[in-house]
């Protein structure tokens, strides 16, 4: 179900959430396989997937904050009351 959510949305936030769910599930599966098969390369791949997911979340959140921030020189309501 979540793989179809990645492709069709309804919003970018939903697609990103589904993608992160799949990536963390895949990383967990790789980590379990790494231990079961005693293959360090699988553990490295799991760590790389988690690192990429972290970067994706950071970039997305910072982009949303920039989009919601007031333009330079314009005060928000909270700053105007002081």
Can you give a write-up of this model?
There is one protein chain. Helix content is 80%, strand content 0%. It is mostly helical. The protein contains four helices and no strands. α1 runs antiparallel to α2 and α2 packs antiparallel against α3.
Supply database-style keywords:
82 residues, mainly alpha
Strand content: under 5%
Query: Class by helix and strand content?
Result: mainly alpha
The largest β sheet comes out as: none
The rounded distance between the terminal residues' Cα atoms is 49 Å
Summary, kept brief:
The chain is built from four helices and no strands. The chain has 82 residues and is mainly alpha-helical. Helix 1 runs antiparallel to helix 2 (12-37) and helix 2 runs antiparallel to helix 3 (40-68).
Strands, helices and their partners?
Layout: H1 2-8, H2 12-37, H3 40-68, H4 77-80
Helix pairs in contact: 1-2, 2-3
